[in-house]
Every structure is written in C-alpha cells, then in structure tokens.
Design goal:
Blueprint lengths: L1 H11 L4 H14 L2 H11 L10 H12 L3 H11 L2 H8 L14 H9 L7 H12 L4 H12 L8 H12 L3 H7 L8 H7 L19 E2 L7 H8 L5 E5 L4 E8 L2 E6 L10 H7 L6 E11 L2 E2 L2 H9 L4 H7 L2 E11 L2 E2 L5 H18 L29 E3 L8 H8 L2 H4 L3 E6 L13 E5 L3 E12 L8 E10 L2 E8 L5 H13 L1 E5 L2 E4 L4 E6 L1 E4 L7 E4 L2 E5 L11 H5 L4
Parallel strand pairs: 1-11, 7-9
Antiparallel strand pairs: 2-10, 3-4, 3-5, 5-6, 5-7, 7-8, 10-11, 12-13, 12-16, 12-17, 13-14, 15-16, 17-20, 18-19
Helix pairs in contact: 1-2, 1-9, 2-10, 3-7, 3-12, 4-6, 5-6, 6-9, 10-11, 13-18
Amino acid sequence: MKRFAQLFAELDGTNATNAKVEAIARYFVSAPAADAAWALFFLLGRRLKRLVPSRAIGQWALAATDLPEWMLGESYQIVGDGAETATLLLDQLPAGANVAEVSLAEWVEHRIMPLRTASADVQQARVLGWVRDLDRWERFTLLKLITGELRLGASHTLVVRAVSQVADVPAATMAARLMGDWTPSAEWFAQVTSSGATDADRSRPYPFFLASPVDDGVVTAEQIADTLGDRNDWLAEWKWDGIRAQIVQRDGRVSIWSRGEELITTRFPEIAAVASALPDGTVIDGEIVAFRDGRPLPFSALQQRIARERDVARATRNVPVVFMAFDLLETGGEDCRSDALATRRERLAAIVMRAQASGARLRPTPDAPQAQLLPLDDEAPRQDEALLQVSALVDAESWPALAAVRRESRVLGVEGLMLKRRDSPYGVGRKRGDWWKWKIEPHTIDAVLIYAQPGSGKRASLLTDYTFGLWHEGALVPVAKAYSGLNNDEIAELDRWIRTHTVERFGPVRHVEPVQVMELGFEAVARSSRHRSGVAVRFPRMLRWRKDKPAAEADTLDALMTLIR
C-alpha cells in the first residue's frame, strides 16, 4: 500500500505528461505482480463498488479525534471531498510508524473487500484501527478505495503508454489487451505484460477510435474548408444520438460491448440475434439507436433500455432499436484497422448486406443497407427496419452543400455530422486529424440563476454549481443545473456576487436573488416525471452571462416545452 500511495501522491503533484508516464512505469517495474495488477485496475478508472458510505467515513473521523460535528461540515464545504476531509481531520492522530508493510493486493482482497459483509460497528473498528498504522497519503488512499472515489489523475492513454513501455509491446496492442472484463491477479498481469501473450478471451472488443469536436467558432462551410481542405478527401455520415458499441462475432459467439467497456449483449437481445448471421471472425463498430417508423427516437427513449436490466422483453417491445454500423475492424478473423476507411466501409456494406439477406428477422434493402431517414414531422407508416444497418454516407458534393444538409440535422433527429478522412486507419483513442464531429448548434434558453452551491475538488471553496429557472405562472421553476461555461474571472465575480446576495441557506445550498441571467445551451429536451418542471434537458452548460438582460425578460417554461419533439 505504501508504494501505491506514493504513486498516488506523485500523480497528484504534477501536470507533466512525461512525469506521469515515468512514475507509473517505475511503479510497474518495482511492484509485485499482484499489486501491479490491482494498481492497473485503479489507474484505468475501474473501481470497487462503494463499501461504506462517505458520510460514515466523516463520522468515524470525528469519533477518533473528538472534534465537534460542525468541524466536519465546515471542512467539507472548503475541501469538497469526503475522503480528503476525513484524512485532514485524522491529522489529529499521530501517523503510524514502524508497521510492517502490507501489499496492495492483500489490502484490497483480504481487508477492504470483506468490509462489504461486515456490520457498521465492525467496519468502523477495522478502518480506525488501520488508519492509526498509516501515514497521511496511505490514509487518504485507503479512504478513497473504500468509498469507491479513487481517481489517480492519469488518462487512460498515459496508463497504456506506461504499461506498454514496461512490457515492450506497441501501445495499440496493450490497449486491446486491457479491454473487456478481467480480474486483477499476478497471473493476469504477467500474461498481459508478456511480449508473446495472445488474447485468451476471444470476446474482447478493440479500443474505440474517437472523433474530435470541430473547434469552437469553426461552423461555416468556408471555415470547415480552411480547416479540412478538399471535400473529396472526406466521408460524411450522420452523427447518431445513441450508444457507441462494438459487435464481436467470434467462435460462434456474439458479444456486444459499449464504449465504457460494459458487456451489454443481454440488454439488446434482438441485435445479438441478428448479429449471429455475421461471418465468424467479424468485429463491427457502430451506434445502437432507438428507432421507429424510419426515424431515430430521442436518447431519452434509449435510456429506458440502458437502465432496464429486468423485463428486457417488455423494453424491447416498447423501445425498438437498430445497430447503425459505420466501421469494420476485423473480418475473417483478421485485424483490418490499418486499411483505408473507404475500403473498410465497402467490405462492411457487403458483409451487412449478406447478413441482412440471411437473417430471418431482417428486411433486405435494394441498393443501400440503410432505411430511409425521415423528418420527425413526417407521419409515414411504420416500417419494419433492418436491425443491422450500415450508416449511410451523406451525399453532398461541396462543403456549402454539406453545411446545408447539416442544418436539417435536428429535424431528422440526429446530432449533426461525422467527418472522416477517406484514407484514415482506425486508430486508438482520440487522435486529432482523421475523425471529426461537426455537431449542430445547441438549443438555447435564457434562464435565471436561483440556487448556487460549492463545487468539488479544486473548486470546493467557490460557488460554481448553479441551478437555473424559467418563468411559469409568475414564478421561477428550476429546469437545469449547470457547472461549466464560465471562465475563471467570471466564476470569481459571480462567486462574490452570490455571497452578498444570498436570500436563504439550506446547508451548502444558497438561494440567491433572482437577478443574474445566463444563456444556457443544451442538446435536447424531453418530458420527465422526475423533475418539478416536467422536463429534463440534456448536457446543459452556460454559453454566455447575459448582463444585458433583466431577469423579467428571461424565457418561460412554455418556450422550453415547444422544443420537445
């Protein structure tokens, strides 16, 4: 544990990319294999399920130090992190010394994980007994682990770089080995870092290749042309509003993986069924989209499928889906990611067409394996969509023509366009230059700030989490929470204003005078019975501080309702 806590401290203490990679690599070289396996598990952002509530940690720290209750609340408002607050309170106890070192694997497997089945009293006794033997960083690391809140400050890409250096294998190979489900162990770590290792789990997907957003301000056809060059060098597709996923068909078995490396095969049995018609040794990348009557449904409909682990059959009937395939990663058991995108797409279309023709539940299409995309206000009769389709290319000869098509995105129920270099390979992670997402401009409303509370982490001492309302029958109704969009100077200015214009306080939450107006941007809006306003907005963020606009002229809830499809 001591060595792992030191790594945590090193990563927390630097923003330098190379320093982070070097620190991680040093750890893997020196740590026992079982410890390295668990460290890699945590470095990749995987977590133990929360074993004890964060609030309990604070109460135990008070019990061990005899500090007053108010100290915990006040400290948390400043720090913004439960484990860190408890660690600071525990500074009242002397740090442990001359205690035999216990390995990270021993800590996780034989101390921390058994807490799940222990009573609250036993949990408290064990944790407080442990922290008396640890120094500050070890205490902090322990509390982060048992609350499931450990974040080690290194991106997935940097971790892959470090472990690939130690193993002396290409980063892309290592990224593929680390995908999917695996259990940390000494044997597993030895296998994954072996230069001659082969992948025993044939169901694993490839690392996902991610598109970069077109930079802010690059929105016109002329600006896109200046940025990307000749239109003929690029393929354009719709940007679907669904779940990014890979279908893996190997050894007669179908697996569907989300981008978050979650196995979701049982959530979408109809897609798994039709994917069984794919040739063995096929891996396809695409998007699972809620789809009915020739048009995509809002993402809020798809969320019903994501959340429902039981009664999948009912969810399947209520929310039909399709798999929009847009890339071929493996065919005939051979990795084809290095081929040009245009070539991969041609082979993908042929494979999907054959699968459509052979699948009993599929509807073949005559010339393109893509159902007609209909405007959302078109009341066409329901179609029996093919469950496995190739996402059609958007036909527009010039950047101005493509920009005109993009303006129809919201009517068609898509998020904009994907722009992909015709000769691009399928990479790993977010490599800028080959794939871009050119999203439509967001919906906007002018809303009034009504509540504020402190942020977390480095923003714990500032009021940065805001709740905004719209007018409805003479009162402001909360409709959205937003945390991003203001620069540091604006945050500091608004923080000062909030502190001097607070009307009421409810714990950390401040009710403020209804004066400040913000222009909010968001991707979509849907009805919601869980919200007082009756609506939920997706990805709200602050676009602009409307100092020029009085609160009385902010938008109404009715205006927001009109944006619902």
